[in-house]
Every structure is written in C-alpha cells, then in structure tokens.
Amino acid sequence: MQHSAKLVARVKLTLTKRTVDALEPEDKPWIAWDDKLTGFGVRVHPSGAKAYLVNYRSGTGGRKAPNKRVVVGRAGRVTPDQARRLAQELLGRVAAGDDPASERAEARGVPTLGEACKDYMDSGHGRAASTERGYRRYTDLYLGDWLTRPLDNITRREVESRFQFLTERHGEMPANQCLSFLRSVYRRPCVDYEGLRNPVEQWLAAGGRYHRKKRKRISSPAEVLPCWRRGLEAEVSNGVHRDVFLFGLYTGMRLGEVVALRWEDVELDAGLFRVEETKTGVPLELPVTRQLGEILARRRAEGGSVVEEPGEWVFPSPMSGSGHVEELDRYYGAIGRSEVLVSRFAELLHHGGGAGADAAAVIDQASGEPCPAGRRDRGLCRGLDGGTTKRARATGGGPHRCVDGPRGADGAHPPGC
C-alpha cells in the first residue's frame, strides 16, 4: 500500500497486534494513526522497525502551538494496548499543562542549534576558508535568533517560514544554501538522540522544494576566447595582472591558487609546478606547457634577481598587504563593456581550463599565433590535455598527455608523461 506525503496523515485504523504486524515499510517513514485515541499512532521506518508515539500541541494548544511528538515504546517491546495506556497518560499530562517532549529533551541533554552548528563546523577538516565563512554567515546572520533553542524545538513550519523570508530578503541561492547547511547540521544529532527529527527533511517530505538553479547558456570557447583576448589586451595594461588572467585560462586554476603561486613551487627545468593550497586540500603537481613557460619566463625576467629569494611570489604586487596580486575585480566591468561574452575570472574555468585541448589553440590564434599545421597531435599549442585540470583536482594530479614544454636535464618529458 503506497502513501503520498499528504495521504499519510489520513491512514487510520484500530492499532492491534495483527494490524500493526501487517503494516509494511516504504522508502520513507510513515505513520498509521489509531482511530480510537486521537494523537496516538505507530511510525513505520524503512528498515521495518516500528515505534508507538503520541502527537500533541504544547501550551494552550491550537494551530499556532508547536506540534510535538513523543515515542512511548517500540513495537515488540510493548503491546498496542500497553502503548495506548502510556499515550493516554501523556495526553492527560499535556491537558494539565505539562510538556513531556521538552521535559524528555531537557533530561537527555538535546543540544541547542548553536551547539550543533559549532560541532558541525568543528568536525569538518580540510574545508576551504570560503566555505567556513559561508557557514558562519548562515549561523550568525540567517539563523542567529534560533541558536539558543534546543534542536527539537524547531518545527517544519518555522523552517518553511524562514526559507520564504530568506528568499525575499537575500535571494533564492542564499535561501537554498542556508537550508542545506541546516539540514546537514541536524544529521548527526538525529542519529545520536532517539526521536529527534530533522525539520528540513520534514519540510521536504511535506512538499517543500529548494529553488531550482537557473541554467545559463555558456558559449563555446571558439566564441568566447578570441573576444576575451582582445578585451584583455585593450583593458588590462598591467603586465602582471594580464599574466594572472592568462595563467588561469591555460590551467583552469582558481584565482586564489594562481596569485598564491611562489617561485619555490616552480621547477622550470623539470617542466612542473606545484599548487600547495587548493580548495579540496589536496596539493597538485601540474606540467608547465609552452604557454605557461612563456608567462613564467616573462615574470622571471621582470622580477630580476629578487625571484631567487625564498617565498617570492610569481605574481607580486607592492601595493597589497600580502605582497602578491589579490583582486582583479576592477577589470571585470571594463572587459565586459568591450563586448566580451565572459569577463569574470571564475567564468574562465568554463571556457579555458575546463574546455579541453582546444583552449590554448583558440587563445593563441586570437593573439595572432596560429598553431603550426600538422603538429597539434604531438601536443604543440595544446595547453593541458582535455579535462586534465578537472581530473587532477579529483585524483590529486592524475595522468596527462605529454606537452611540448621545458624538459629535464636528460631531455626527458616531465614525470607522468
């Protein structure tokens, strides 16, 4: 017998040993309610386990009062008649003004949302700093007024209301991200504390939906890169900044990874460079292609003897506190006004490093350096091979095709070719 989310509440029957044994599990937990005692029911879990429970509204009751549930016993350990008597006792206490669910939660020490958020953030090792900042923003700004409340005191209706509020005040994506974070925060406590339910899961089960991500068309590299190269040359006069853009295009690296590159991480003789700090926390070792070799040669020539000093940046900036280039935002608007289809640095991941073998050839042709005929199959003008950057991120620097770039002292290609 199949039950939709709305039909579950309508399943009523007299709970006896025979009827309870006949209830079959489904993909999601569902509840069969007793037709003799209002608020008394049995929850059937996907595993086949069954538990008797009482549903009530605390305080003065009414539709605005929080809806709470208390487990009174597990099927097999107590009979339906015994569970019904326990349910009657609990409902009598509720009528007298007691709140059994809160009393039980206080006795077993259910954590507050603030404590659960802290535990969740402390347990995630290797997260990027930007991810941690996002979690703190959700906790302090979006959920700040809930932090002192016990986890079992936050209801599905409140989650739904907060989702609508965040959508109107901050936008669809922040609302999605905040509820996804809240859903994750609840998962571990729901395992640790019997009977604790995840209000975000309940909201989804009741028909709640995250906002759909709006897909936008991403033009092909052949459309974007020639325009982008012309816009870059027209609007970015600073050679260091221009090379940051180009380095990101040829490798698919994130802006923070490019600007944090140090000369001690570059081995031109071996044709390799290392990225020590990545979003995934896994260091990468990547080949120096012909195009990257030209960029690094320019940076070394302009840096002079200072590049030999330990810790010196490949893309330095005397104006920043860190000593390296930090922000390129001021160029985005100007490049965009030059009728370029893509302007922001992050979007280059879709067109350059993630575009495959043709990216380097297209960008070189746009700069008046066509790929030599008949040589592309041997690696010239190819940059990294198709998908290498994405695969390297997933495997910690996986296989790549040989590239025509600097070789070792013995004339061999870099390791991995």
Helix-strand blueprint:
Blueprint: E1 12-13, H1 17-22, E2 30-34, E3 40-44, E4 50-57, E5 67-74, H2 80-95, H3 100-108, H4 113-123, H5 129-142, H6 156-170, H7 172-192, H8 199-205, H9 221-235, H10 239-251, H11 255-259, E6 266-267, E7 272-275, E8 284-287, H12 290-303, H13 329-337, H14 348-351, H15 358-366, H16 388-395
Parallel strand pairs: 1-2
Antiparallel strand pairs: 2-3, 3-4, 4-5, 6-7, 7-8
Helix pairs in contact: 4-7, 6-7, 6-8, 9-13, 9-15, 10-12
Looking at how many chains there are and whether they match, the oligomeric state comes to single chain
CATH topology of the largest domain: hpI Integrase, Chain A
User: How many E strands?
Assistant: 8
Q: What would CATH call the architecture of the largest domain?
A: Orthogonal Bundle
Cα distance spanning the termini: 59 Å
CATH class of the largest domain: Mainly Alpha
Output the number of helix runs.
Answer: 16
Mean pLDDT rating: 77
- Strand ordering within the main sheet: 1-2-3-4-5
Characterize the overall form: elongated
Low-pLDDT parts are: 1-8, 351-357, 368-417
Helix content: 40-55%
Q: What's the SSE pattern?
A: EHEEEEHHHHHHHHHHEEEHHHHH
* Largest sheet: number of strands, sense, barrel closure: 5 strands, mixed
Radius of gyration: 30 Å
Class inferred from helices and paired strands: alpha+beta
Query: What portion of the residues fall into strands of 2 or more residues?
Result: 5-15%
What is the total number of structural domains? Answer: 3
